[in-house]
Amino acid sequence: MIRMMFCAAVVAAVGFAGNLQAEDKKSDCLKEGDPIGAFYVTKVAGAEDDGVEAGQELCYRCRYGQRPMVMVFARKHSEQLNQLVGKLDQAVQSHSDEQLKGFVTLLGGEADSLKKDAEKLASATNVKQVPVVVAKDTKNGPRNYKLDADADVQVVIANNSQVVSNHAFAADKVDVDAVMSDVEKAVK
């Protein structure tokens, strides 16, 4: 009987710790006000007039400094991702006075495959203002961003080097309107 009660207590404690870990995982993601750090990418396509050649490795986050910026991290392609990238490209153009910047970082696979996907995404969306890049850490993206491993698309919006908002989505559930609403708030 004592052994059975001990086992029940252990199971309850493990269950409680499991719930705590799930909560801790959520709290690990970047939140409003958190600082954004540097990370390196390789430019593949898009933003042909930004002074960066395709194949060049750099830190776009560093290049954009404290300007308002939208960083899209994508593991899976979808029509909603195309719509988001198209709207982001338009927003960067229309908010040039506010110096809004944006870039799309593909991750979650092998570099060569991601580069092909980046070319396809840039071609499908015809981006003029937004570079499409591949993360140096192709599997997980920048560690200091604590990206949600279960999200197909994650959008981090920042201004003055701090997170304004952070959205995580399944590829076919990207809420373009919610993201663009936060973009508008970030440039004000």
Question: SSE layout and pairings?
Answer:
Blueprint: H1 2-28, E1 41-45, E2 57-58, H2 60-64, E3 69-74, H3 79-94, E4 101-106, H4 111-125, E5 132-135, E6 153-159, E7 162-169, H5 176-186
Parallel strand pairs: 3-4, 4-5
Antiparallel strand pairs: 1-2, 1-5, 3-6, 6-7
Helix pairs in contact: 3-5
The number of helical elements comes to 5
Number of domains as seen in the coordinates: 1
Using only C-alpha atoms, the radius of gyration works out to 19 Å
CATH architecture group name? 3-Layer(aba) Sandwich
User: What letter string, H or E per element, gives the SSE order?
Assistant: HEEHEHEHEEEH
CATH topology: Glutaredoxin
Strand order of the largest sheet: 2-1-5-4-3-6-7
Tell me the name of the CATH class. Alpha Beta
Task: Report how far the terminal alpha carbons are from each other.
Answer: 65 Å
| Proportion of residues in extended strands | 15-25%
Structural class category: alpha/beta
Form type: globular
**What is the fourth-level CATH superfamily?**
Glutaredoxin
Question: What characterizes the major β-sheet?
Answer: 7 strands, mixed
Percent of residues in helices: 25-40%
Structure summarized in a few sentences:
The chain is α/β, with parallel strands linked by helices and 188 residues long. It contains five helices and seven strands.
Protein architecture, described:
The chain is an alpha/beta fold and about 190 residues long. It has one domain (about 30-185): Glutaredoxin, CATH 3.40.30. About 40% of the residues lie in helices and about 20% in strands. The protein is built from five helices and seven strands; from the N terminus they run H-E-E-H-E-H-E-H-E-E-E-H. It has helices spanning about 1-30, 60-65, 80-95, 110-125, 175-185; strands at about 40-45, 55-60, 70-75, 100-105, 130-135, 155-160, 160-170. It has a seven-stranded mixed beta sheet. Helix 3 (about 80-95) runs parallel beside helix 5 (about 175-185). The model is unreliable at about 1-25 (pLDDT under 50).
